[in-house]
C-alpha cells in the first residue's frame, strides 16, 4: 500500500508518453468497460487497445510455459524490469483479470465443487473405517482418489484466491486513481500463471483414459534408412528426455541400442509422474524428418522416419504370490494298490489345485513327497503369475493398439529442417517454424493441440451418434 | 540290443554290490556284539573315478535301452515300476553317481561337442553297469542301488536289511509337528520313542521338530538297521537327541517305563501269506522282519498297543501305521475293548491317497478331565 502511495506522483508523469503511443497505434478497439478513473486521465479516452512495440519495451513474448495458450499471455507484461505502466496496459490487464475470473468461475462450476466436497467427505469416512486396511489394495486405491479429490479442491480454491488477488489490485488501482507499476506487474504475473494453471487443469480434465494418470514408457525405434534414421531416432530421444525433464518427471533412458555409425536403433524412456501417459499418448506414431543429410557427402535432402510408441508405466505387481492355504487342494497320489509297506515305487506324485481358478499342477519328478509338494507349489505360483501376466499382456495389447510403422504415409508429424524450417502436426495442422525449440523439448503446443483435437473429435463423434 | 555287461567290476567300493541274503538278512539276535558297518550312500562317496563323457553316454544309452525293454512287463506282473519310472530312476542314479551331473542330465540326447570331456564318478563305470543290470534283472530296489532314500527333506542312507521308508509314513512326522506346535512344553520337551525304527526316519523326523530338551529313543531288532539308523542320526547331527537301541520293541525301554510322552511306530503289518505276492522289489529284497506282521498282520500292532498302556505317560501321544482300513478298525476296536479306559481321543487318520492308514490317540489321564470327554472309556 505504501509503495502505491509513493508511486502515485511518479505514475502521473507518464501520461504524455501514453498519449503519443496511443495515437500511433493503428488498431482501434473500443473499451467496453467505462473506466472509473480519475478525471485527470479522462483525456486519454477513447483508448486503443493492442500492442505497439514503441509502447511496450518491457513486453516480450515469453516462451510458452506448460501448455499455456499463446493468445492469452500476450497481453501481460513483465513488470520487474520496469514500472512504466500505461493506462492502456492497465485496461488490458483489467480485461485479462475479468476474463480469467470468468474462466475460474466456469471451471469451478463445471467441475462441480459441491460434488467434489461430498466425494471427499465420503472418502474420508471410508478411510476412517476400522476395517479400512483389511483390503490393502482397495485401501490404497481409496487413498489415491482421496489425494486426487483433495488436490483438485485445493487447486480450485487456489484459483479463486489468486483471481481475487488480481481483482483486488485492479480495484485498488481504480480507487486510488493511479497506476503502480509494481503492483500491476504482480497482477499480470498472477494472471499469466493462473492462465497456465487453468490450461493445465483443463487438460487434465481431458484425461479420461484409465491410464492417463500413470507414468509413461516411450519406445523409439529408428525406421529404415540406416544412419540417417538412427540419428533421427536419437534426436527424438533427446527431445522427449528434454520434455520429460521440463515437466519435472523422473525421466530415465532404460534401454538404448546404439546404431553402427551414429544414433540409435531403439531406446526406451520411462517417465514417472502424474499424467505423463495422458500427455504423451498422442505422440504415438511415426515422426518424419526432412533435412540435408549430415551423413551424406553431397548433402542431399533426405527423409527419414522413426516410430514412437507410448505405453503407460504400470506398477509392477508383486512377484511374490501368496496363496492362502485354504485356497489350495493338495493331493498325494501313489500308484500302487495298498500302499505303505506293500509298495516300493520311487514316484511320489503331488497334485495341487488352486481352488478359485481351478489351475492345477502336478509334480512327480522330485525324489521325496515333500520336495514334490514344494516344487508343485512354486510351479503353481509361477503358473498363476503367468496367467496374471497374460491378462496384463492382453490389457497392454489393447492399450497399445496397432503397431506403429516407421514409413511413408503413416507420419503424425513432419519436422522439416531443409529447405525451410517447419514442424507441422499432420493431425491437428498445428505448426511452428521454431524447430530448435521443439527439438529442445518444447512440445507442449503440439501435445495440447492434439489433446484438444482428440477431445473435439470425440465430442463430434458423440454428438453425431 | 546289447544288454550285456561289458566290463567286470574291479571297484574298491564293491560293498555297494554286496548283497545280503534277501528275505531275512542279518537277523542275528540282539546278542550280536559286532555292529555291522553301514555302507556309504553313493552320493556321499568320493568322486575318484574319471570317465569321459562319451563313455558315460554309452552307459546311459545302454541303461535306457535296458529300462525300455521292460515296458509294462513289471507293472503287469506285480505292479512294479514301468519304463517311465525306471528312466526317472536312471536320471537319479546319474545325479548321485556324478560329481557334477548337470552336463549329462541337461545335454541328454543332444550333441555335445566335447565328447572327450572327463567327468568324475563316485563309482567305477563298471559298477554302474552292474548296478543297473541288477536293478532291472534282479529287481533290486532303486534305493538300495544308490544306498539312499529321499524322505521328507531328508536323505536317509538305506541298504539291504533295512526297510526303505515309505512316503505315507512322512505323515506321522506332520502329525507330531502339529501336535508339538500347539503344545506348551510337555510333549515338545519330553521323551519320545520310535519302535522298529529301521533307517531311523521317524526318529530323525521327530527329533528335528522337538524342543531343545526333547529326546527320542529309537529301537530295532536288526543290528543292520541299528547301524544304519545310527549313521543317519550322525549325519543329521542329532546324536545328542536321538539314542538308537538294539532290541525288540519295548525291551530296550524298560528303564523309561511310564515316562514316554510320545510313541510312534511303523511296525511290520503285512499278513504273512501276502508277502510272496508283493512286488519283487519288496518281497525279494526288503527285510521280511520289517514287513511280516503274522497271520493277519496284527501281531506287532497289538503288541505295541499293549505295551503303550504301560510305557506312555498319562496324556502321552501315540501313532501307529497300519495296512489299511481293516487293521485300523480292528486296532481301534481292540483299544475300546481289550484295553478299555487306557486311551482317549483315539482316531483313524487317512494317508494322502485317502487310505485309512494310521491310528492315533492319547494315553488316558487317571482323572478324566473336560479335555478328554471323548474318551473311549467314557
From TrEMBL, chain A:
GO molecular function (one): translation release factor activity, codon specific
InterPro entries: PCRF, Pep_chain_release_fac_I, Pep_chain_release_fac_I_sf, PrfB
Domain of life: Eukaryota
Pfam families assigned to the protein according to its UniProt record, in alphabetical order: PCRF, RF-1
GO CC annotation, single: cytoplasm
Keyword terms of this UniProt record: Protein biosynthesis
Domain Prokaryotic-type class I peptide chain release factors: 334-350
PANTHER family xref list: CLASS I PEPTIDE CHAIN RELEASE FACTOR (PTHR43116:SF3), PEPTIDE CHAIN RELEASE FACTOR 2 (PTHR43116)
NCBIfam families named in the record: prfB
Similarity annotation: Belongs to the prokaryotic/mitochondrial release factor family.
Protein name: Peptide chain release factor PrfB1 like
Organism per entry: Actinidia chinensis var. chinensis
UniProtKB/TrEMBL annotation, chain B:
Entry-linked PROSITE patterns: N6_MTASE
Source species, domain of life: Eukaryota
Keywords attached to this entry: Methyltransferase, S-adenosyl-L-methionine, Transferase
KW S-adenosyl-L-methionine (keyword) present: yes
CDD domains linked: AdoMet_MTases (cd02440)
GO terms classed as biological process: methylation
Pfam families: PrmA (PF06325)
SUPFAM superfamilies on file: S-adenosyl-L-methionine-dependent methyltransferases
InterPro entries hit by this protein: DNA_methylase_N6_adenine_CS, HemK-like, RF_glutamine_MTase_cyano, SAM-dependent_MTases_sf
Molecular-function GO terms, alphabetical: nucleic acid binding; protein methyltransferase activity
Protein name: Release factor glutamine methyltransferase
Amino acid at each position: 500500500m505504501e509503495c502505491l502511495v509513493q508511486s502515485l506522483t511518479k505514475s502521473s508523469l507518464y501520461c504524455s508518453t501514453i498519449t503519443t503511443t496511443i495515437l500511433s497505434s493503428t488498431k482501434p478497439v473500443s473499451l467496453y468497460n467505462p473506466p472509473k478513473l480519475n478525471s485527470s486521465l479522462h483525456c486519454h479516452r477513447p483508448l486503443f487497445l493492442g500492442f505497439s512495440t514503441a509502447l511496450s519495451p518491457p513486453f516480450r513474448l515469453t516462451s510458452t510455459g506448460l501448455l499455456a495458450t499463446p493468445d492469452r499471455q500476450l497481453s501481460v507484461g513483465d513488470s520487474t524490469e520496469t514500472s512504466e505502466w500505461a493506462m492502456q496496459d492497465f485496461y488490458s490487464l483489467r480485461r485479462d483479470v475479468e476474463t480469467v475470473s470468468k474462466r475460474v468461475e466456469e471451471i469451478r462450476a463445471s467441475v462441480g465443487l459441491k460434488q467434489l466436497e461430498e466425494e471427499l467427505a465420503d472418502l474420508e469416512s471410508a478411510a476412517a473405517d476400522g476395517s479400512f486396511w483389511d483390503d490393502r489394495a482397495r485401501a490404497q486405491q481409496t487413498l489415491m482418489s482421496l489425494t486426487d479429490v483433495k488436490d483438485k479442491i485445493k487447486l480450485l480454491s487456489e484459483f479463486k484466491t489468486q483471481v481475487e488477488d488480481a481483482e483486488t489490485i485492479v480495484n485498488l488501482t481504480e480507487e486510488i486513481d493511479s497506476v503502480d507499476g509494481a503492483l500491476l506487474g504482480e497482477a499480470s504475473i498472477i494472471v499469466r500463471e493462473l492462465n497456465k494453471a487453468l490450461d493445465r487443469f483443463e487438460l487434465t480434465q481431458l484425461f479420461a483414459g484409465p491410464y492417463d494418470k500413470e507414468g509413461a514408457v516411450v519406445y523409439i525405434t529408428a525406421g529404415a534408412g540406416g544412419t540417417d534414421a538412427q540419428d533421427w531416432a536419437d534426436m527424438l530421444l533427446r527431445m522427449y528426455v528434454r520434455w520429460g525433464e521440463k515437466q519435472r518427471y523422473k525421466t530415465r533412458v532404460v534401454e538404448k541400442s546404439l546404431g553402427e555409425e551414429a544414433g540409435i536403433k531403439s531406446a526406451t524412456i520411462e517417465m514417472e509422474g502424474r499424467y505423463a501417459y495422458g500427455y504423451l499418448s498422442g505422440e504415438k506414431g511415426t515422426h518424419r524428418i526432412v533435412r540435408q543429410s549430415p551423413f551424406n557427402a553431397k548433402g542431399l535432402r533426405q527423409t527419414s522416419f522413426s516410430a514412437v510408441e507410448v505405453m503407460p508405466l504400470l506398477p509392477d505387481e508383486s512377484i511374490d504370490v501368496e496363496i492362502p492355504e485354504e485356497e489350495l487342494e493338495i493331493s498325494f497320489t501313489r500308484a500302487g494298490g495298498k500302499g505303505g509297506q506293500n509298495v516300493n515305487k520311487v514316484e511320489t506324485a503331488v497334485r495341487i489345485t488352486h481352488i478359485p481358478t481351478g489351475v492345477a499342477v502336478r509334480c512327480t519328478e522330485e525324489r521325496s513327497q515333500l520336495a514334490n509338494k514344494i516344487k508343485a507349489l512354486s510351479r503353481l505360483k509361477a503358473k498363476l503369475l503367468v496367467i496374471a501376466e497374460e491378462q496384463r499382456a492382453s490389457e497392454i495389447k489393447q492399450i497399445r493398439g496397432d503397431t506403429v510403422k516407421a514409413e511413408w504415409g503413416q507420419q503424425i508429424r513432419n519436422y522439416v529442417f531443409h529447405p525451410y524450417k517447419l514442424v507441422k502436426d499432420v493431425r491437428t495442422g498445428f505448426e511452428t517454424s521454431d524447430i530448435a525449440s521443439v527439438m529442445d523439448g518444447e512440445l507442449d503446443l503440439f501435445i495440447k493441440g492434439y489433446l484438444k483435437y482428440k477431445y473435439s473429435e470425440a465430442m463430434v463423434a458423440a454428438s453425431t451418434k | 540290443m546289447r544288454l550285456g555287461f561289458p566290463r567286470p567290476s574291479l571297484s574298491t567300493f564293491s560293498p555297494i554290490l554286496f548283497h545280503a541274503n534277501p528275505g531275512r538278512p542279518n537277523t542275528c539276535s540282539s546278542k550280536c556284539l559286532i555292529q555291522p558297518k553301514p555302507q556309504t550312500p553313493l552320493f556321499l562317496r568320493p568322486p575318484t573315478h574319471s570317465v569321459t563323457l562319451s563313455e558315460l553316454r554309452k552307459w546311459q544309452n545302454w541303461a535306457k535301452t535296458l529300462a525300455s525293454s521292460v515296458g509294462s512287463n513289471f507293472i503287469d506282473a506285480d505292479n512294479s515300476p514301468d519304463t517311465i519310472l525306471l528312466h526317472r530312476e536312471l536320471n537319479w542314479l546319474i545325479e548321485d553317481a556324478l560329481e557334477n551331473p548337470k552336463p549329462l542330465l541337461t545335454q541328454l540326447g543332444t550333441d555335445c561337442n566335447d565328447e572327450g570331456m572327463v567327468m568324475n564318478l563316485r563309482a567305477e563305470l563298471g559298477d554302474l553297469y552292474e548296478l543297473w543290470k541288477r536293478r532291472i534283472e534282479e529287481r533290486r530296489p532303486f534305493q538300495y542301488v544308490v544306498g539312499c532314500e529321499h524322505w521328507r527333506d531328508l536323505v536317509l542312507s538305506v541298504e539291504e536289511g533295512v526297510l526303505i521308508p515309505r512316503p505315507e509314513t512322512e505323515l506321522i512326522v506332520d502329525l507330531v509337528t502339529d501336535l508339538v506346535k500347539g503344545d506348551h512344553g510337555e510333549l515338545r520337551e519330553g521323551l519320545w520313542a520310535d519302535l522298529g525304527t529301521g533307517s531311523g526316519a521317524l526318529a530323525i523326523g521327530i527329533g528335528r521338530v522337538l524342543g531343545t530338551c526333547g529326546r527320542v529313543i529309537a529301537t530295532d531288532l536288526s543290528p543292520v538297521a541299528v547301524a544304519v539308523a545310527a549313521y543317519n542320526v550322525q549325519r543329521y547331527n542329532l546324536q545328542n537327541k536321538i539314542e538308537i537301541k538294539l532290541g525288540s520293541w519295548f525291551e530296550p525301554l524298560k528303564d523309561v517305563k511310564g515316562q514316554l510322552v510320545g510313541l510312534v511306530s511303523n511296525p511290520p503289518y503285512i499278513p504273512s501269506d501276502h508277502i510272496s505276492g508283493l512286488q519283487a522289489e519288496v518281497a525279494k529284497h526288503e527285510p521280511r522282519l520289517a514287513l511280516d506282521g503274522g497271520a493277519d498282520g496284527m501281531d506287532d500292532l497289538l503288541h505295541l498297543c499293549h505295551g503303550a498302556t504301560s510305557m506312555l505317560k498319562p496324556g502321552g501321544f501315540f501313532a501307529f501305521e497300519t495296512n489299511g482300513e481293516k487293521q485300523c478298525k480292528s486296532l481301534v476296536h481292540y483299544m475300546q475293548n481289550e484295553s478299555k479306559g487306557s486311551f482317549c481321543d483315539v482316531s483313524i487318520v487317512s494317508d494322502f491317497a485317502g487310505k485309512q492308514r494310521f491310528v492315533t490317540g492319547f494315553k488316558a489321564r487317571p482323572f478324566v478331565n473336560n479335555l478328554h470327554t471323548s474318551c473311549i472309556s467314557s
